[in-house]
Amino acid sequence: MKLGLINSAFSQAGKGLKYGLEQTKNIGFDIVDIQADPLTLGIKDRRLIKDTADKLNLPIKSICCVAVGLIDFNPSVQQFHIERCKEHLDLCYEYGCDNLLLVVGEYIWQQEVIPPKEQWRLGVESVRELGKYAKKLGLEIVIELEPFDLSLVNTVKTMIQFLDDVGMHDTVRANCDISHLYLMDIGPAEIRTMKDYIAHVHLSDCNGKAHGDLPPGRGVVPIIKYMEAIQKTGFDRTVSIELEFAPQPDRIVEWVTEAYEKTNAMMQKLGCRG
After folding, report:
1. Domain that holds residue 136
2. Tens digit of each residue's pLDDT (9 = 90 or more) over 31-58
3. What's the per-residue H, E or C state across 80-128?
């Protein structure tokens, strides 16, 4: 497996794109995932990301995209988000990524007013259209399981059902987010049911009660048990550390380095870093 970092760790601390990429490489990561919106990314920053990553020999494996409007009941809003996601896929292709990490959103109005089945249908149809576009580009879409009660995909069961309904298993697959699984009371043993679906992994810790994305060891998640379960599925691709806002932004390098060292130690223990 390759060990990566989502660049939002540095951008949330107010550090520039170039600085974040350089520190990611210096700390020892194999790859980087990018959180960037092509609709707001200026041409200079767009090229800066790619040129810097190439110079550092730091492959960009994934671009993160939150597109909750894919299940909006307004056709114009839904179509806007489909086109926006296609712009993200174009950026994935430009950067030589493996996939687009996609968050599809939540049911609105407590699943009242609009039937939940209708929002589910909108999500499936939108992602299927995006999957066809991704396939033409030789890319994958990986769906993130979110740890919130009203998220469309928030359990292993809903993940598998969503991917089966989309029906493009070679293109639209699953992201396995370890802290999200823990927050939804999904134990390591359940990962085996996702064996044929996982294409990307996110790793972080949390306090067990709320979304937190902490460095491993600062929370209560038995990360190494989840990693062992993921390893047993035969997964051998990218594991990306996801960190939320550092409590001391001026010490962000230490925050990220701590996460790297803890994760690398676990991967070395399992013999899966390579």
Report:
1. 2-270
2. 999 999 999 999 999 999 999 999 999 9
3. HHHHHHHHHHHHHHHHCCCEEEEECCECCHHHCCCCHHHHHHHHHHHHH
